[in-house]
Records
---
Amino acid sequence: MGSGRRTAASGGKLTPMPADIKTMTRFRFRLPSILLILTLLAVAGQSQSTRAQGIDSTLVLRYQLAESYLRAAQFDRAIALLEGLVERSPETYVFFDKLREAYASVKRYDEAIALVDRRIVPGEAGTPLRAEKARLQYLKGDEEAALNTWDETIRQVPDRPGSYLVVYRSLMQMRLFEKAVEVLEYGRSALNNDELFQTDLAYLYSLTGRHADAAKEYLGVLEENQRQITFVRGRLAQQIEQEDVLEASITAAEAGVRRQPLNRAFRELLGWLYLEAERYEDALDAHRAIDRLEDEQGRVLYAFAQQASDAGAYSAALEAYEEILQRYPDAPSAPEARRATGTLYERWADRSAEIGDASADSLYREAMAAYGRFIEAHAGHELLPEVHFRLGRIHREILMDFDTAEATYNLILDLWPGSSAAERASFELARLAVLSDRMGEAQTRYARLADELRTGELAEAARFELALIHFYRGEFEAALSLTESMKENTSADVSNDAIGLKVLLVENRGPDSLDVPLRGLASARLLVRQQRFEDALAATDEVLAAVGNHPLVDELMFERAGILVSLGRAEDAVSSFKEFPLIHPDSHLADRSLFEAARIESEILGREADATATLTRLITDYPGSLLASEARTRIRTLRGDGT
């Protein structure tokens, strides 16, 4: 059999295979050999076979002793016992197999081969043993003899697929992938069945770089059983990042769709491959075709739109949602699509705002319009509370229209009490109360949420907000008690913030009984949260002037630099952040101050070279910083390295 070429069996003889395998690709591949399977079966039935064959119980004890010697790496003792067992009971497979294994362990291959030879009998029953003999010959270093024995293994029973599989698995143990390909390809030709060994050949083709052939085999699997799409996709996903795999797979899948346009699995595979290649318009076309051909009423389009939106392909996702609403306005997927359109615009706007894109405002307006259309079209729908909540979020966080946001959240409480949206709305109303300095109302709402929910992230977030209220009021013991009671397995942000507050309280109480510096910091942080930045700056300056060299000075100076950013005084903020490590080189905030300075330089002031220099200083001065890795990434981005 030549590589990549099929030959026919003639006169019951197998065409000789090339013996030169020294240059074959070798990888580690673990498959249970047929002998191992047989061994396990033998061991599983040992008690029954012992009784049936009348094996002396002393033989069993000797076998167990031999196994203990093998585990202790006392191979000579084990082999001596096993040789005696095989001589006394040559028909007992487990004795034979353990002795063969022991010989191989100490590289006594000639004895292992002779042992296998004595057990081989003509016909199909000897096929696994011949394959094992070939494996032992290969391990011994006699490659030519091994190849001849593998050939002979197939020649014994050339009309059974199992013969080729036994040899294939033996070759895989030796990582002889090219030879394994030859065996399976020859088996197909000899048995005149191109549907044999599809998954095995597909895997082998991938290992040997024949990605187009691998894709064709996977399509063959789907042609036989379309329900294998998950299996095929999983197999390809393991290889997809290798060079040329994706394009070769796409080419094969496109050909498959042209050949069998009604095969849904082919189209699903092609659509998935397009998504992996970030060819979103092509992926939309593939999913659109499935939706129409299978009369899915927009369900396939909706699933695609979600995937595209998650990948940031907002235009393609929007097109899919709009097609659902236009083509299937009364389908069950229509309300979901209308709500998801608003969510998509909102996410798109958030992303645009992050990168300073001026389109963010118009995208938020589109989101609000989409949510409005949902409210108008789907009165009484179960998604209404969530839609109103999303509108409240835009009014509160983006438009800073606190009155409208508050009215929206109260509407949710009135119409859908007890719902998840109502719980979150109550939390947001408490946050709004903090912003407008209605601390009593905020405390009541947070406490009620924590008591009613008891467990979960929202309950823990409410407890942390209660701790903050006590902190703002200077009630430090109460704040500390709440942070200590919080579970550390809540969401990362809440847990980290709670730990940060706890550390701040533990390390910075006193020495004066009034805790003046800590009270000043608490007051400044509340003013910042309420966006009263001028008042916050004045309060911070007043405390700094009064406390001298208090250990909390670094926290106050860092807070002050952040306030300068909020006041639009970017240059002053950069100077303060860069000066910070010079004054407080050992502070836990020193590396973060440089990181913040670089962020302002790049994102606000547009001075990328300065930002790069500041990040380089961070890495140099604080090589063990948790921010060092992200600093390196940002340096590469600023330099345009693309890696």
---
Amino acid sequence: MNLIMKKSVLHLVTLCVAGGVGLSVQAAPTHLVDEKPVKITEVADGVILIDFGKVAYGNIRLTPASDVSGEVTLHFGEDFVNGRVNRKPKGTVRYNKATVTLSGGQPVVAAPPADVRNTELVSKRKYYHPPAILTPPEWGVVLPFRWLEIEGWKGELKAEQIVRQSAYASTWNDDAAAFESSDDMLNKIWDLCSYSIKATTFAGVYVDGDRERIPYEADAYLNQLSHYYTDDDKVMARDTINYMLLEGIGTWPTEWAPHLVFMVYADWMHTGDLGWMSGRYQALKSKLNRHRLGDDGLIYSSAEDMKRTDIVDWPKKERDGYVFTERNTVVNAFYLRSLVLMAEMARVIGFTDEAKQFEADYNASYTAFQKTFFDADKGLYRDGIGTDHISSHANLYPLAFGLVPEEHREKMADWLADRGMRCSVYAAQYLMEGLFENGAGTKALDLILADGDRSWKHMVKSGTTISWEAWDLKYKPNQDWNHAWGAAPANLLPRYVLGAEPLVPGWKTARISPNVGNLKSAEGKVPTRLGSILVEWKNEKSFRIKLQLPEGMDAQVDLPKVGKSNEVLLNGEPIEASVQGGRLRLKKTVVGSVVLEVK
């Protein structure tokens, strides 16, 4: 392992801002790790192909033999066609090359020329977003690649003569999390998505991919959720929040700002750190879009908002025909969810009056929301005022945010699931949450594993090793092949298949609620601030689950109801449980190591 960065709790990453003025912000520590090739092949005379097994952000360090000198050309690529690095990949799939001169026995770092999208030059271009996050200059240029071709190499190239200097979070722990099930494809999806989170920690804060390398609030929230379930680190999420919230470097979409409320709340739930949350509470008030609040309690959208900032989903073609109106369902759903979280945070901080005001605002806006958008006869939400169009998006967000009247939730979940994946990889996070939370877990797993090109199964079968920005190039021709917001199963599978979520801030009480779908078994490890939760369940003639909770944690457990009996055994002895929503909830929490069985 080659640590280029100084061993410190935090390092400073210099960020360029408009006008070329440097801004230094704290970022989670990252480092370069030496990774050897998994395969070296001579594909033509003097042409050597190196496969590193997976894509990572990095560059190459060559150490030629003492008798090897001269110029060589290196081709870096994410894509691979006809046995060679693809020199003309589609969209913004990465390819680049570099020429270096070898001088017998002297190590040399080889990297392509700097890319203006990821250097200070970007500040001179007209964008609606901040400039790229810069990596430490001592690294040299890093780019995402898996394959490397070397032209002009003389003689044999041995594995010890070439390493990829790959950038990852210094805190990353490969053993922090695990997932395995009876479905091999689901296991491959977990491997893809969990590695995607690791590979995209290279910048020290969450960035949206290689095309821009900037933090977007929605991207960062999805990344944060998955990072919590794949690694022990909580620093990177905090540094990303600080960059966007405290430095005031936000982006343009209407619904992206409330994601900062979601991010601070998620930090509190996973860490239990009330002081850290309190220090960001006041800044969150500006992220609610209340400057657009009308007298009726709803957020209004101007013609310009509808044209430029109300995003619903991205890319635009993923909006399921959504009809934009001056008061629309999606923007208001985000507003309502933000009010719920702000009220809860205000109350626990001790701002009782503010909590009451947030709750009163919520009640007034929720009443207007239901009256304006909900079609009671159909049990579904319209896209907005003045339209009868009903899209998946007008319903998936309210369902995920707990806004749907309880008697309509399961029917809406079934309606959404039966329509299929009519949304992007971003909105799929919320679609899946809504399905898993409302009795449609089997259908959610079916969508994750679906045939066709709109599922994570498709990503796996494509051969990619990092999740994509979109389901396929045909849905977003300029998409990145290294986008963490496409890795939602990294958090969905431990949360809903293993079933582990924090019920009380800091994981003092966990919720254990596994969805079995058509799986016969699942097991894994979930990292928490108190230690690892170990889960192992089997669903055959009966449902049996082993739980190992860390010290200081208890768990509220509800289990799938199998068969006709409602009998639950705890370590072989009957325990009282009640039927709730088709599941069996234990009336008492459990601690330590337990075995539960549903007969």
---
Amino acid sequence: MGRKTICYRGSLKSCNYRCSYCPFSKHRASVQELEKDRQNFGRFCESIADRAAEFDIGAVFVVPYGEASIHRWYWEGLGRLAGLDSLERVGLQTNLSFSVEECLAVFDLYSRDANRENGREIDRESDRGISGAARRKLCIWATFHPEMTDMETFVDKCHRLADSGVNLCVGAVGAPQNIALLGRLRERLSPDLYLWINKMDGLGRAYTEEEKRAFLELDPFFGLECGSPAADAAMCSNRCFVEADGRIRACNIGRIKEGNWYQSEQEEIFRPLCGKKRCSCYLAYGGRDDFEGRQFFGAYPIFRVPKPYQAVFLDLDGTLVPEKHRGRLSDSVRRKLLALREKCPVFLATSMPAEEVRRRLGEDLELFQGAVFASGAYVWMRTKEESGKADGSGEKRKGAADREVIHPVDLKELPLLTELAARCRAGVRVYRKRNREADAERDTAYKITLVKRHNSVWQEQERQMAAEILQTGAYRIFVEKNCLEIIAAHVDKGTGVREICGWLGIRPEEAIAVGNDREDRAMRPVLTRPYPAIPAAPPS
């Protein structure tokens, strides 16, 4: 059983923004209402301090109706919670209208107080370390409201928070009229900040296919927003949603459970109960045990903050470039790769052979430290000595050698495959790794492709005929568009990722692979969906 996540929503129902669609912008809280909210949150924080270890709570997320970040007591409480050893993450949903420096100062102060309460001696040197450790626990879910703030101010605050050591994600409501604006926001944000899009309630119609594609380019998980997965209470036993008065649910839309956060025992509090047919928002489906984004977001995906990685593997078609686009990388993708390369190694993972990738990408291939070519049949990594060429510092140093492994295919069945290709109106290509001695007889074949004319397809019967020719079990056959691909039976993109991770001295779980088709599935468990902004890397 994983560690538990607790979401809290206080009695606050007021906001300092006046967005036209939001009911909480219409209410101004009285002094009495604010005091009640302060007391409620203080009581909740005390209960977490008392129960976090007993209940195995790893994260607390404040998700208010209104805007909580402008009230000092939320920063005081989050600071105290961040000072608890048993908590790994604390977070807050906000419109980012607070003062970054002033609020972080309050957060730091109360996290230090929590450490003193735990009996730690604090001097000036340890003071800085404690503040830094607490900020690394803090996760800010920042929502962009174009009606109320300009992009320059919002982006500046995002970067100041990230630079201060705070975890951050950025998002907005998916209003179709704002697609171009949100595209500009994506360009202005740092490449390692995740931009999410929530579906727009009250749109009055379904999104068009063009609108869906545009939002998917910004947020690869937007499809889940449109689909609303079927509810399953069994997937919600490791979380609880707590109201100001202690009422409890599995999530923000779940049925109220019997019992109360402040009186009930652990078994009753976390007893699976739902009452909904669909998980209709991210707070509902993003906290489920089976949420497919866990590999991307880590143990606490509710915060929407990507976990750091030691290496990134990126598919080409459909990920770095659009499907059916045969050109090189766009300037935007190239800039993002350059930024990501500063923080961790970046590799290609493609079903294309090395020769075609080099012909297609040209100098863009120098952006990658290596590649998994031909679905794992040929794996290559540039040595550190050679990496200088990629950033323009000069040619490869003499004596430096690539790391590579080639998984050969036997060509003894090539005559029969050639006959089959002729019957199927296809050509035959054999891809080889050239030997340094330029001895063609010693070149190693690693992939055979039977290629039909553009837009032609391979029938299952034709694939079976190829399988009968190659019945020894030494080959793997798969079809991609108009190509029937043949490689060694024991390799795929997953084996290539693991080989490179071994060369880097990291576990596969410390890497992330990004792809969008059937061949990419072999890269699990490191696979996630396409992420156009390119995923987060370890802090430099």
---
Amino acid sequence: MRESKQIILALLLLTCLTVMDAFAQSNVVRDSLNVLNPAMVSADSRFIKQIISRTLEAKSRNNPEFRPHYDCEIYSRNEFDLVNPHNPLISKFLPKGFHFVYDYVETSPVSGLPYLPVMLAESKSHYFHSRSPELKKEVIESSRISGINEEKTVAQFTGGLYIKANFYENYLNIFQVEIPSPLADNGSMFYNYYLVDSLAVDGRNTYRVMFFPNKWVSSPTFEGLMSIDAEDYALRSIHVRLSPGAGINWVNDLAIDVENQRLPDATWFYKQDKIYIDLSVALLGPSTMLSFLARRQIDYSDPSFSENQLLGLLDPKAPVLMHNDVLKNEEDYWASVRPYPLTKQERGIYEMVDSVKHVPLYRGAEKIGNMFATGFLDLKHVGFGPYSSVYSFNDMEGSRVQMGFRTTKDLSRKFRLMGYAAYGFKDEAWKGGVSTEFMFKNMPQRKLSLSYKHDLLPLGAGPFGFGNGDVVTSILTKKGGRKMSMIDDISLTYQHEWSQGFNMTMGLQSRTIFPSVHVPMVSPEGISFDSVGYDQALLQLRFSKDEIVTRGVFDKHYVFSDYPVVTVNMAAAMKGIGRNEYTFFRPEVTMKYTLLTPPVGSSSIVLNAGTIVGSVPYPMLKIFEGNETYRLRSKSFACMDYYEFAADTWTTLFWEHDFKGFFLGKIPLIKRLNLREVAIVRAAYGTIRDENNGIPGDPGSGAWMVFPEGMNNLATPYVEAGVGLSNIFKVIRVDAIWRLTHRFDKVEGALVPHTNRFVINVGFEFNL
């Protein structure tokens, strides 16, 4: 028994020693591991660089826009939604019987927030493309719009042409904001790329590549994921979102999804585009933020790459054409052309959205929104305004009150009558005007206009101040508004749109200009003129290319073109015809061009040149546009006085470069303010012949009239330059302008500094 106990104790001792030895051995191993040198692992970027490089090299064969010809069918669906409709700001004012709309609330795939559709539109079109001759044409065959007034004028925006997401291009233009593509030729300047996976898609090896903006990029960029075919190095699909801090006003979020397809002949073509834009406006703070989601989806089908016989029949100057019966509401028709059926929820949205238009709250909000956009409060048949001109003041009139009206499209879509009346309490005089427009056709535009005005106008301000005084301009006026002349003006014009890129306006104008205390009319012999009158014929030709145009019932607005826009104006009069005492011919040409220079912003360039053939009094010369206010007027010379310079042969240059925050966006704290830098240069040069030279005391003067005090010629060019800071609180811009030439006036033989050598201008700008 004793021996068995000893054996057991020996076994226990041996076990303990074994465990202790194993523990000691583990410590030795651990200690030895602790003294091993660390292994450095670094990513090899050569492979991803090779993938991107080969994809860029293959752009010419994989980009459908590089094909000589193609045409395809397009189905486009557009939706405009109210995000977070349960917002207290909305729910508080929503009538009790109006809460049925909440039955149609869905969830956004972008933000995850609920949204309520307020406008739906879909269209079916045929798209044509040709490289030689150059042609991009969308023919909208049918369109359906719900939630707003269905009009042919807005049907052109239901297609897919205006926001085309082609990532093979170097930049994507989103509302005139140039965002570099991840597949741009210089994409490595903006993005870092990471290979995250390699997998088979449709039996083909495919690379999945993530991309993020470089650290020091301050311009808007994307981040996202793209799939690249490993054999053809073609873009199969891409998902992008606007990178945080992109600094695009009102855009809270933006996402784009693109899918391309490989056709049986081994070529690649578009399959589907989706774009989501979350637009947000904070009224009083985050709790009162109103957000809207704009969504658009395009599906491409039936591509053909042979030259289509219809190409020769299409107008090359109009990017969008529409069939006469473009508006179609039959559900059976749309069910047959949609590439996918609508869900039960989507089918009910059409009925709900149309019902919303009949709710009084909706109609009232529509009127108020329209008032802020147009300046007129439209009732059923008549609108009143513009509200900004109800009260103003100046030295000649004292306090001025004004009221105007116009008929609405509910009264007539062919005829519009407008008018206004104003009264000055200091000069105790009535002013006013009336005009009428008759629309023969809206698209293309054919419009006849007749107008009459009897009002004060500072000729040296250009066409900006005729009957458009407002209290803000009155407050910001430097010298009280003294240099104004009473003018009677009757004009008859006819506008004819030959094509979207060629517009013609011709007309007749009869104008009488009366002198004032500050703007006298005196001959070199000292004889005072009671007035100057002339009748002239007018012709304007406007040339543009691929220009985006918005159309209302009566008005047409030019938005943007990638190409220069050239306008030729001609005016002529002959002595003896009408009441003319002067014979003259005035040709003038203007070129406007917006040069996009991403990532350093864009330049706006306006060049103007003209001449006057004949002898005329000074009110009919070219009087350069001055600005005697502190208000921002980009088409005037900020440091030039009214009636300061005149010429009969002239040229002007207005150049502004908006850097879009290229510099300030790189400063850590300031970049949060999203401020934008602007550089400004404005210049003018003009000469004047002896028969038009009314400078007092000039021995060569043979003019009809002596120039008013302070007016001179521009034999020495006038130049001003400055810098601006825009996007202050998203809507305010401040410019500081210096006068670089003509900085001194000669007074009694001595040089005296000009009183307008430096100015600060303030104004509002609404940009993305």
